[in-house]
Design a protein that fits this description.
45% helix; alpha/beta
């Protein structure tokens, strides 16, 4: 028996990297999973690995998508992982458009999905799991407004969790902040840029980060948050060394 037998999950941004690992882990833990992404090829590879997963090719940032999907699926678990890949340049090499990319994509799409989850609302006992980033606390000087956008997602999780409590909805909302990892395409590109910036090899820089977060370990973390007892924390760091660690409330 799996921890999530009988549960329904929607994973937004599931075609590659940590999102794919999360979809696979939820499915293997017994949940019925709908995986959403723009990349048809990546979704095909996902279903080849986990044939029970249903897929939908769609743009997570489409403002009508969240309401349509949540009405049709009525999930117990909503994992919002999708986001744009930032331009890896120092601040003065950005235009405003490239600097603000993750605000216009990541923050906006997360807002749309979160808003629909509370307005519908999802059933009592549901979990909404938002992917933020370790950059939200440590910064990311080579990715424009990325760190600030991910910090805002952490704030949004706290706001929404509080509103769910105030409304007696029985819905929990948490943000997950994974450490930078070379185990994903974006993470590897970021490691290469920071290694060059610091004048060290990729291997040296990756070693400084500690054990990498992998799609598999991210997947297990999301299963834990979807199935386990949650305390009062609304944000968790995720590292390859320590796994999930509850973060203190923001002042």
């Amino acid at each position: 028996m799996g921890e999530l037998d009988g549960k329904k999950a929607v994973v937004v941004g599931a075609s590659r990297g940590l999102g794919r690992g999360i979809a696979e882990a939820l499915s293997r833990s017994g949940a019925s999973v709908l995986a959403i992404a723009r990349e048809h090829r990546g979704l095909g590879e996902l279903t080849a690995a986990c044939p029970s997963i249903q897929t939908a090719v769609a743009d997570a940032a489409d403002p009508t998508l969240a309401g349509t999907v949540l009405d049709a699926q009525d999930p117990d678990i909503l994992a919002v992982v999708a986001g744009a890949s930032p331009l890896l340049h120092p601040i003065h090499h950005h235009s405003w458009e490239t600097f603000s990319l993750n605000w216009h994509v990541d923050v906006r799409l997360t807002f749309n999905w979160l808003r629909e989850a509370l307005l519908r609302p999802l059933r009592p006992g549901s979990r909404v799991l938002l992917m933020s980033s370790g950059a939200a606390t440590h910064g990311s000087p080579m990715s424009g407004g990325y760190a600030g956008a991910k910090a805002t997602i952490r704030f949004m999780a706290a706001y929404a969790d509080d509103e769910a409590r105030r409304g007696g909805l029985g819905i929990r909302v948490v943000a997950v902040l994974p450490r930078l990892t070379p185990a994903t395409g974006l993470g590897l590109a970021t490691v290469r840029n920071y290694a060059a910036r610091e004048g060290v090899s990729e291997e040296q820089f990756a070693k400084m980060l500690g054990a990498p977060v992998t799609p598999q370990s991210a997947g297990q973390a999301f299963v834990t948050l979807a199935s386990g007892e949650l305390g009062s924390a609304v944000a968790y760091s995720l590292t390859g060394d320590d796994g999930l660690t509850a973060l203190p409330a923001l002042a």
